[in-house]
Amino acid sequence: MTNKGDLTAQRREYLAQPLRREDLNEDPIAQFAKWMDDAIAVSPDDATSMTLATASKEGMPSARIVLLKHFDADGFAWYTDYRSQKGAELAENPQAEIMFYWYGLERQVRIQGNVEKLSQAQGEKYFNERPLGSRISAAASHQSHPVESREALESSVKALQERYPEGDVPHPEQWGGYLLKPTRIEFWQGRESRLHDRFQFNLTDEGWSIQRLQP
């Protein structure tokens, strides 16, 4: 009898073009920007989706998908409820890794670093730029905490809609942004027969160093 949980026969081949050392920008942020542009061109709806991995002070990891909202030489930013599981873990252990996987391009980027909160002004600015429904949902939810029912959650949303009929929902103090300041960035390009191309940038006192990694 076939074991339905056995996935060892599931395979795919990677057929993308190589990633060569001479193709890399010496600045990993510029290299990331190029790959992000390529990803948006192929699949704009999913390009900014990233896995965010955090860990508690005891070292227990957790991961979830969040959306990258902006990046520059200072780091990579996203927004959330500070009271969420990721917020609690970042308060205990302000280090994280984010990972992008772009299926259509057979590319992956991993970014490690230290994390700090963005300013309240930045959080408020972005909050007020969000669609009304997203602002109400963020204000009504105590993210990651139990709720007795879907009806209870929808009741909280309705109460806010009635309280702010003009849509002027105030920015919750417990909701804002985080910035991951990178210390290590890896670019991965899928290749045939699993002989993938991997280049790792590491931040040193002299700037970014680059090394090729075995697949």
TrEMBL record:
InterPro entries in alphabetical order: Pyridox_Oxase, Pyridox_Oxase_CS, Pyridox_Oxase_N, Pyridoxamine_oxidase_dimer_C, Split_barrel_FMN-bd
Pathway membership: Cofactor metabolism; pyridoxal 5'-phosphate salvage; pyridoxal 5'-phosphate from pyridoxamine 5'-phosphate: step 1/1; Cofactor metabolism; pyridoxal 5'-phosphate salvage; pyridoxal 5'-phosphate from pyridoxine 5'-phosphate: step 1/1
A biological process term (GO) from this entry: pyridoxine biosynthetic process
Residues where substrate binds: R11, R12, E13, Y14, K69, Y126, R130, S134, R194, L195, H196
Gene3D superfamilies reported in the protein's UniProt record: Electron Transport, Fmn-binding Protein, Chain A (2.30.110.10)
SUPFAM superfamilies, per the entry: FMN-binding split barrel (SSF50475)
Catalyzed reactions per annotation: pyridoxine 5'-phosphate + O2 = pyridoxal 5'-phosphate + H2O2; pyridoxamine 5'-phosphate + O2 + H2O = pyridoxal 5'-phosphate + H2O2 + NH4(+)
Protein name from the UniProt record: Pyridoxine/pyridoxamine 5'-phosphate oxidase
Encoding gene, per UniProt annotation: pdxH
